[in-house]
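lol forgot to send this yesterday, sorry. struct tokens for the thing we talked abt
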């Protein structure tokens, strides 16, 4: 059963239904995630309030970069905080071993960012086992502790937040703040969250599977890398 949170507007609920519909083509699916990204950015700004950190470090995975993350970045830029944004993008593999999920990092794009003077905004289209979020977050805070840590996703599996907290020391886990629109508590075949985001996110986005998505270089990364070169 799905439970909507206070972050979900009536429009967000309608867009979440577009994701859940397995007939939605990839182009519309990506557009829906971008819309949800804009809404999540609005909620993030509300949670941050007037005490903005010097940096907003947007942390995403390659598959989410040109949809959900791009929607978040665009709305933050529209809101006048573009100069504070730094982007980190990870290419994660997925491995199942002895009933456990792992998400080793294959490569990364990382803009310079002082983590200690930042709010980390870890973005994911759906959080199930939280292994990707766990891996990417651990990588970023290995040598520094950020001011605030936001875990941002349209959909989360019930209990994933507590699972994530248990994997970090209290000094870190006490800083977690979750912004999500819907909590689902059912899985199909022990794998896919129902309704979730309508199944395999890699296929729904049009990447054709995990291996192919890791060959992709997102437009968000290309544009930001090009801009950095021009302003260096």
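and heres what i got for the seq, position by position
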């Amino acid at each position: 059963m799905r439970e909507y949170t206070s972050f979900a507007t009536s429009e967000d609920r309608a867009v979440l239904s577009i994701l859940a519909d397995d007939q939605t083509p990839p182009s519309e699916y990506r557009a829906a995630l971008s819309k949800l990204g804009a809404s999540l950015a609005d909620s993030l700004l509300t949670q941050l309030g007037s005490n903005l950190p010097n940096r907003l470090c947007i942390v995403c995975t390659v598959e989410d970069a040109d949809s959900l993350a791009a929607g978040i970045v665009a709305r933050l830029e529209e809101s006048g905080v573009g100069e504070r944004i730094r982007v980190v993008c990870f290419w994660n593999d997925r491995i199942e071993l002895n009933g456990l999920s792992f998400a080793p990092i294959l490569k990364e794009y990382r803009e310079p960012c002082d983590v200690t003077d930042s709010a980390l905004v870890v973005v994911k289209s759906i959080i199930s086992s939280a292994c990707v979020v766990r891996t990417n977050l651990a990588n970023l805070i290995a040598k520094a502790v950020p001011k605030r840590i936001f875990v941002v996703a349209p959909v989360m599996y019930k209990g994933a937040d507590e699972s994530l907290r248990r994997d970090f020391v209290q000094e870190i886990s006490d800083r977690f703040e979750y912004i999500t629109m819907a909590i689902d508590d059912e899985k199909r075949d022990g794998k896919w969250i129902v309704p979730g985001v309508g199944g395999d996110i890699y296929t729904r986005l049009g990447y054709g599977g995990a291996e192919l998505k890791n060959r992709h270089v997102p437009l968000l990364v290309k544009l930001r890398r090009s801009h950095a070169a021009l302003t260096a």
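The chain has one domain: 2-231. anyway ping me if u want another try
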